[in-house]
């Protein structure tokens, strides 16, 4: 009896351990479910008790980048499928560290809405606004232009909705125009310059005269600046930097002055249709056949993609540039993504598709890690997040500017393609350490967590 | 001197494209009184005739790469090459010039179908309504092309033998740097030939005489028992062919995409207005004039002092000409003044 009484009043070691475990688990249990509730009145489009959560995919569905936009949309749909536990899970099999379970995000099934940016800042902002105000999205992603990315990123900051940028390469996106609510997985012009520099030195030497033709908007300006900084660092002379209107079509009036300029290298800071047209016309004007200053004339296209290589045809063969990712990479993450995408759609993904897919998983994973959709907590999870298994080696979302740092590919247009998709040769995988830079050089302010 | 000569050539080349498109536009306006905003789409359709013809010539056997398992990746070997070897490859190489033979009947049919199916219902409507309906038609045509061919430009190389540049400087005893792409020179000559042919057709044939008379006084020609309407329908087809040929031959200069017609349309309308509504020689003269001015305005020495002038020069000149000559360079009294 007394023994029993004693037993009732005495806490055994086992009881102590059980109680401690329960107490330790309690905050996590309560916070995970209750966090969103705690901030339910404090953030835009809180899904609350809804069984679904909506993401907004804002891509160019019309206009010059419609093909790239269509590929981005395919990748987003694939990511949603994988998040909801359908399909073969793609990069969710390789991503490390990862909290995704294939049960949506925080147990809510993922749905999505789409918008058309038309590759115009005003149309992109209008579309994003509609998604935030009417469709109730908690995150916006996509886009194929830096002008659009910067415009939407700024809107996202004002609205308190996270923007996971698609294809944007201007230094400004995570430089002077960076925002707390904006994150870029894609590389940038500064990283392109750092990656290209050593290859240019090795293949073209240190005595060259470079002539720049540059798209007259934020991306063109920053790429010109970064490439110029790189080539002048190598000892090259910059003969001229000429700004060309976006969508000029016929570039002959800009190309012909090059013939008499004394330049032996043309750097085309053009992307998409402009790049295809200016390169095609440069080749027709015989630039690649010329010898200047005793050197073979060379053309460099610092940023290009497989989709652009298809448009440029033979003109791109042998031309150096950089790319964010290529479907022919052999790491486990890339192979898993190519398998999923290829099986789903019947062709390999573009670099734009890759970045959009990765951005969606990263956002979802950050929500799971935070245990909430509350943007300031999600942002804190993304800031400084280090991950691997997503196709670019060990990667980090730098907290200071929200720029992802990862390996960069230097590529060359392939001379004898083996298949219709085999258009780029990977010249070098430049390690992340060689493309890193001080976040403060571009200025800008991220802004507050709570808006 | 080299820079001036080369910009002159650039201007002539650009002007030739403007003139060809504007010629068809003003022909349709002068005969049918229709302001056809779908005319740029006809230029684009011409370029896509070349794309389609190239695709037909390069129908291939697909050698599948077995190492790629998640999708079908293959290397193409055109049947023409398999069957005829180098001769087959040579035929493919000449896809662009050969596609002219396909483009002429196709564009004629498209033009006739467009006029009979849609445009004729708007003859008596206001110009604003004509603009709205033809602009809508242009968008529909664009989207159909985008659906089938995608949004990316499609490479259309010229034949190898003319893919390099002509050493004009060496011919003229000037600098070796004065070179110009062969295909652009061919485009210029081709444009002059087409323009000359249209003028000869209108000046030297009975059909042309009736059309000119109809442009001057449609009612009187009708009183003479001539079915002017049928003739004008054929003129619409002819204008489509001219725009289509301009597009076919421009494909190696500007890789075709679904939007290329719109890029030229606005400028071509300015050309028509500057030349004088309904005036064929005016359209040609204004096309070349504005092309050359635009080219010179983009010279570095000019843009140094007047940045951005190359983007506005055409509109600036248009304003000046319309202020001093309200009917344009060669416009006739009474045209579009009611």
Give the structure's gist in a few sentences.
Helices cover 41% and strands 18% of the residues of chain A. Chain A is an alpha/beta fold and 451 residues long.
- What count of structural domains of chain A? 2
Main beta sheet of chain A: strand number and arrangement? Answer: 7 strands, mixed
- The helix content of chain A is 40-55%
> Main sheet of chain B: which strands, in order across?
1-2
What is the CATH C level class of the largest domain in chain A, in words? Answer: Alpha Beta
> Total number of helical segments of chain A?
13
What is the rounded Rg of chain B?
22 Å
Order of helices and strands of chain A: HHEHEHEHEEHEHEHEHEEEHEHHHEEEEE
Biggest sheet details of chain B: 2 strands, antiparallel
Count of beta strands of chain B: 4
Name the features.
heterodimer; A: 451 residues; alpha/beta; Rossmann fold; seven-stranded mixed sheet; five-stranded parallel sheet; 17 strands; globular; disordered N terminus; B: 338 residues; mainly alpha; two-stranded antiparallel ribbon; 69% helix
Written description of the protein model:
The complex is a heterodimer of chains A (451) and B (338). Chain A is of the alpha/beta class. Chain A folds into two domains: 52-187 and 327-406, Rossmann fold, CATH 3.40.50.2300; 190-323, Rossmann fold (3-Layer(aba) Sandwich), CATH 3.40.50.2300. Chain A has 13 helices and 17 strands. In chain A, the strands form four sheets. A seven-stranded mixed sheet of chain A has the order 7-6-8-11-12-16-17, with helices on both faces. In chain A, α3 packs parallel to α12 (351-370) and α12 (351-370) crosses α13. The longest helix of chain A has 26 residues, at 13-38. The termini of chain A are far apart. Chain B is mainly alpha-helical. Chain B has one domain. Chain B has helices at 2-32, 39-57, 79-84, 86-93, 95-98, 100-117, 127-149, 168-171, 182-204, 206-216, 218-223, 228-250, 260-275, 280-297, 300-305, 309-324; strands at residues 60-64, 74-78, 165-166, 180-181. In chain B, α10 packs across α12 (228-250). The N and C termini of chain B lie far apart (48 Å). Chains A and B meet through α8, α9, α10 and α11 of A and α1, β2 and β4 of B.
């Amino acid at each position: 009896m007394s023994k029993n009484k004693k037993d009732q009043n005495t806490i055994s070691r086992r009881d102590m351990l059980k109680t401690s475990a329960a107490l330790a688990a309690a905050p996590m249990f309560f916070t995970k479910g209750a966090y969103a509730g705690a901030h339910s009145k404090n953030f835009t489009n809180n899904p609350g008790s809804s069984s679904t959560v909506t993401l907004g995919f804002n891509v160019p569905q019309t206009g010059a980048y419609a093909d790239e936009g269509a590929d981005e949309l395919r990748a987003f749909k694939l990511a949603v499928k994988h998040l909801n536990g359908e399909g073969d899970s793609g990069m969710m099999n390789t991503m490390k560290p990862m909290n995704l379970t294939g049960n949506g995000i925080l147990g809510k099934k993922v749905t999505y809405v789409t918008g058309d940016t038309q590759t115009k800042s005003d149309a992109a902002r209008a579309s994003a606004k509609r998604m935030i105000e009417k469709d109730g999205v908690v995150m916006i992603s996509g886009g194929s232009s830096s002008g659009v990315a910067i415009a939407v990123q700024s809107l996202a900051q004002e609205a308190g909705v996270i923007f996971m940028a698609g294809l944007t390469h201007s230094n400004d996106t995570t430089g002077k125009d960076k925002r707390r609510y904006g994150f870029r997985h894609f590389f940038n012009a500064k990283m392109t310059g750092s990656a290209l520099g050593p290859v240019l030195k090795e293949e073209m030497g240190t005595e060259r005269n470079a002539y720049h033709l540059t798209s007259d908007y934020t991306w063109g300006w920053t790429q010109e600046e970064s490439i110029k900084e790189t080539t002048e660092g190598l000892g090259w002379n910059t003969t001229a930097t000429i700004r060309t209107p976006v969508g000029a079509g016929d570039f002959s009036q800009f190309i012909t002055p090059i013939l008499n300029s004394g330049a032996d290298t043309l750097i085309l800071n053009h992307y998409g249709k402009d790049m295809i047209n200016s390169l095609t016309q440069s080749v027709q004007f015989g630039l690649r056949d010329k010898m200047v200053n005793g050197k073979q004339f060379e053309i460099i296209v610092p940023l290009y993609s497989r989709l652009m290589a298809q448009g440029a045809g033979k003109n791109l063969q042998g031309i150096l540039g950089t790319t964010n990712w290529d479907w022919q990479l052999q790491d486990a993450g890339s192979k898993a993504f190519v398998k999923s995408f290829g099986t789903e759609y019947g062709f390999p993904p573009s670099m734009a598709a890759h970045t959009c897919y990765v951005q969606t998983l990263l956002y979802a994973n950050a929500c799971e890690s935070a245990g909430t959709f509350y943007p300031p907590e999600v942002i804190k999870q993304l800031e400084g997040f280090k991950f691997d298994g997503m196709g670019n080696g060990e990667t980090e979302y730098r907290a200071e500017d929200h720029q992802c740092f990862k390996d960069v590919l230097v590529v060359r247009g392939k001379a004898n393609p083996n298949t219709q998709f085999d258009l780029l040769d990977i010249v070098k995988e430049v390690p992340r350490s060689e493309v890193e830079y001080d976040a403060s050089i571009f200025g800008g302010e991220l802004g507050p967590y709570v808006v | 001197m080299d820079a001036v000569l080369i910009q002159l050539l650039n201007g002539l080349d650009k002007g030739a494209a403007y003139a060809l498109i504007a010629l068809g536009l003003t022909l349709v306006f002068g005969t049918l009184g229709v302001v056809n905003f779908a005319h740029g789409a006809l230029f684009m359709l011409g370029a896509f005739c070349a794309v389609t013809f190239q695709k037909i010539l390069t129908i291939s056997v697909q050698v599948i790469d077995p190492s790629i398992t998640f999708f079908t990746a293959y290397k193409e070997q055109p049947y023409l090459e398999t069957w005829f070897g180098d001769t087959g490859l040579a035929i493919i190489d000449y896809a662009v010039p050969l596609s002219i033979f396909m483009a002429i009947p196709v564009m004629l049919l498209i033009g006739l179908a467009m006029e009979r199916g849609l445009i004729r219902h708007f003859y008596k409507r206001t110009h604003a309504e004509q603009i709205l309906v033809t602009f809508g038609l242009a968008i529909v045509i664009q989207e159909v092309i985008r659906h089938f061919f995608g949004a990316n430009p499609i490479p259309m190389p010229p034949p190898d033998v003319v893919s390099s540049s002509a050493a004009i400087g060496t011919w003229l005893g000037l600098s070796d740097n004065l070179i110009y792409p062969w295909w652009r020179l061919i485009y210029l000559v081709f444009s002059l030939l087409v323009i000359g042919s249209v003028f000869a057709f209108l000046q030297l044939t009975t059909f042309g005489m009736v059309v000119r008379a109809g442009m001057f006084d449609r009612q009187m020609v009708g009183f003479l028992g001539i079915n002017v309407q049928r003739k004008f329908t054929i003129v619409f087809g002819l204008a489509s062919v001219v725009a289509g040929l301009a597009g076919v031959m421009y494909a190696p200069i500007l890789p075709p995409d679904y939007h290329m017609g719109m890029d030229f349309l606005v400028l071509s309308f300015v050309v028509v207005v500057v030349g004088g509504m309904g005036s064929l020689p005016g359209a040609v003269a204004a096309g070349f004039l504005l092309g050359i001015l635009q080219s010179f305005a983009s010279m570095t020495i000019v843009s140094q002092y007047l940045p951005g002038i190359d983007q506005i020069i055409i509109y600036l000149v248009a304003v000046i000409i319309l202020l001093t000559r309200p009917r344009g360079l060669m416009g006739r009294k009474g045209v579009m003044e009611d």
